[in-house]
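Re-run with default settings, no changes from the original entry. Doing this only to confirm the output is reproducible before filing.
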Amino acid sequence: MFLDTLAHNITTNPDKPALELLADDGSTEIITYSELGNRTTRTAQYLKSLGVIEGDRVAVQLPKCMPFIYLHLATVQLGAIFLPLNPAYPLSELSYFVNDAEPRVFIGDATKPAGTYGGLNGINGLDHLITLDPNTSVWLGEVEKLESYNPTLPTDPDQIAMMLYTSGTTSRPKGAQITHGNLTTNIEGLHEAWGWQNDDVILHVLPIFHVHGLIVALHGALHTGATAVMMPKFDADTVLDLLQTKRFTVFMGVPTIHRRLYNAAGDKTIDLSHMRLMTSGSDRLPDDLFFGYQKTFNYILLERYGMTETGMNLSNPYQAERRVGSVGMPLPGVSARIVNPETDEPLPDGEVGEVQIKGAHVCKGYWRQPEKTAEAFTEDSWLRTGDMGVRAEDGYFTLKGRAKDLIITGGLNVYPPEVELVLMEHPAVAACAVIGCPDPEWGEQITAALILKDGQTTTEDEIITFCREHLASYKAPRRVLFVESFPQNALGKIQKAKLRETFC
């Protein structure tokens, strides 16, 4: 499995850089494969000292840093379940995740304001609430005092390795249970499809609390014995300079990142044809950006399609046509089909329907939500993605929108019910509807339409500030509209399609 491959790389390439962390001051911290293995096993020993055993959850809310990676690998090495949490989550959202997952250990960021995690005390099952400063080596020094050991790696592919929360259309997030087998299958499929090589060097600019940055990018590099250069904060001008002047061969981004790189280039032509692989995902790549990249950078971006529950599903070919607007064809080991969403019956090529996915990479189900798990799968084990798409006769898939009003902003998923629940807590709001409107930089802009209570007043700025206090900042509306009424159907349901037609 993937841990065995990593162990092999640690043994055969002990002195090769596995990770390089670029600091804000221009310095670089280099961690060899041998050091990565040593620090991972010592961190596992540290977790064992806290009582962590197989099946326990370990929740981590840290920025992009080396301790995050050591904790991640150590947790799955022990057979425990790693729960990465977005550093932007405020206490109200953290409380939900910790109450739902019941981790034995929670590790947070000591640089956050005092009292940030106080509300987590007393949650059932949480034995240790620990904070560490990701910018210092104090914690690491304590860990390195522990004896290293030879771990017995998990051997059951059905054992849960990670839990990643994905927003649901009915307000509360669901914990997708990702097994060791899921991870291994997906990484090996991407290795075959994208031609990962031992001498690859990836410039890693993505967050590492979700599938794209943690599994596709980081695990992809470690699986093949490559080097991942970690950039904690994305800066377009710096990235353009690095891609031109350094030894990078791989770069992965979301449309928002690629848009900023394209805009930063301005009228200049910058040749990035030396890059072996540059991918785009998490949202549809606009056609103008697809063609603009070719003109400005002399590179054709490779677009692909994945989701939290599955990792990667489809990809444009590495060596054949990368088709504009398409997310390509199924990866090795993946089956995909287009069906009538009402009947699950397959549709012929050229007809739009729901995309359904099957394969050993698909998650085990949702944590403690058997009803949601049952709803998500057909009787013959196809995953209902909720995404609408069409398959061409030559096998290329193209997405046509989302059946469940999902908003993707900056490559991150936002479901309207989460935002609407918060909006309804505002004392001036009588009714609300949240939609996504096209945005050239973010992909979609979160737009809130509000009906106010009689005699109440508020402002756009006040509403946005209120949401930012109760939600991660990327989920807060960027635009607020005040309306007298909503378009509704015969059952009184708000017709969001008509709202989008009117306001987007």
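The longest strand covers residues 429-439. The mean pLDDT is 93.
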